[in-house]
Specification:
15% strand; 43% helix; globular
């Protein structure tokens, strides 16, 4: 705690004075974040640091395992953050960001690790589909490190699927107002692996590359548009 207090003192005396106008503007104008980032609560993974985002630029919610429960199963903090970000803040991008060496993913691979933490064990069930994919669809002979890495990636994709069940997200996607992103931050290398929805795989993001996306904002779509109304069909 001494280090935390010392850090705040340094911020208040050395950082805030030069940023005073920024914070005053954010209070006056309100927040207009560029994206919602759903990341792991792991203390080694800081979305604002990774992206070098300033105050007011990202709306961030963090939890164990960067989990997004399906809409119908749990009304909680993640659900509220998603709904608020899309409907109140009008974010146009949502990022689900996993990371290497994730303790939550280790808990998924070895359920006994969380047996004394029933709340954690229940929470991680939202990643069970990712565990099942890795256990059944990946080769049995891959080493533990690669298996853990694969699970972290598959978990990002599972959580993106869960995200699509949220009404605010489904509506924004159908209206062509939202883009979804799947990221994996490699702590040990500093690389950012980004899911390319068209290629169906994660790729290392390079500075000169265009940013791949999991699901791009598209032209507004309506499933019934192609068939017309019942009255129009009856008149044919």
């Amino acid at each position: 705690m001494d280090n935390i207090v010392q850090g705040f003192t340094q911020f208040r005396e050395q950082v805030f004075p030069s940023q005073r106008s920024v914070y005053q503007r954010l209070v006056h104008d309100g927040q207009k974040p560029k994206a919602l980032v759903i990341s792991c609560a792991d203390s080694r993974v800081v979305p604002e640091l990774i992206t070098q985002a300033g105050p007011g630029e990202l709306f961030v919610t963090r939890n164990v395992g960067n989990i997004v429960p399906p809409f119908a199963t749990m009304m909680g903090g993640v659900t509220a953050a998603v709904e608020y970000a899309v409907m109140a803040l009008n974010v146009r991008d949502i990022v689900v960001c996993g990371h290497s060496d994730c303790g939550a993913m280790k808990g998924l691979l070895t359920p006994g690790l969380a047996e004394k933490m029933p709340s954690v064990a229940a929470w991680l069930r939202h990643g069970e589909a990712a565990r099942k994919i890795v256990c059944d669809a990946y080769p049995n002979d891959i080493d533990d490190k690669r298996r853990l890495h694969a699970l972290a990636m598959e978990n990002v994709l599972v959580q993106l699927n869960h995200l699509r069940t949220h009404p605010a997200v489904a509506s924004a996607l159908a209206s062509g107002q939202l883009t979804l992103h799947g990221w994996l931050f490699e702590i040990e290398t500093g690389h950012l692996l980004v899911y390319d929805g068209e290629a169906g795989q994660f790729v290392v993001l390079a500075e000169e590359d265009a940013l791949p996306v999991a699901e791009a904002a598209a032209a507004p779509r309506l499933a019934a548009a192609a068939v017309g109304s019942p009255a129009a069909r009856a008149a044919e």
